[in-house]
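Quick one:
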Amino acid sequence: MKWFWCLVVMLLSSISFAQKKPADSLLLMNGRIIAAPVLDTTLGAVTFVDPADTAKRAHIENEQLFAVKYHTGDVFYYYKQDTITGNWFTRDEMWMYMQGERDAQKGFKARGSLYGTMASGIVGGLSSSLVGPVLPLAYFLCTGLPKVKIKHNTVSNVNNLDYDSYLLGYERVARSKRRMRSLIGAGIGLVLGYSSYFLVLKNYY
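Output:
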């Protein structure tokens, strides 16, 4: 039984070591930052302690990483400019692009797209016809046309607005959020519109 208890002690020790190890910063290509101790960087992926459960391990492929900033201050970059693989930006440009994505993900609300398609969905539903969804669909198709207005209170650093790559990253996420909010608004609006007609208005005609 001694070997069993030795194995248990070693396992608990390794878990305790992983928990006490200082956190590193994994900078993902989608703008997210994961703070967790890095355990291994071989076999085309980075293995780290799962922040949600320190007893587990998580993996991220190298292609999904921009860089890893270690607690020692060292930084290892995974992103490299390579037009053949579609990496058109330089490292600095990609960093600004990612900052734009992250700021838009956190700060851009797209309320206009949500309420606009919701209103058009209600109107379409109240028509009680099969062409009711046409109005919110038309609104949805137009959500990508208006220019994205970047409010300063959604920007982590106003100086970033001077960089085209930052603006491109912000606009990409902002337009994506517009489309998603539009779909949600259209669905809610149509349900409210058709429900209102068949449950209330229909009795008056």
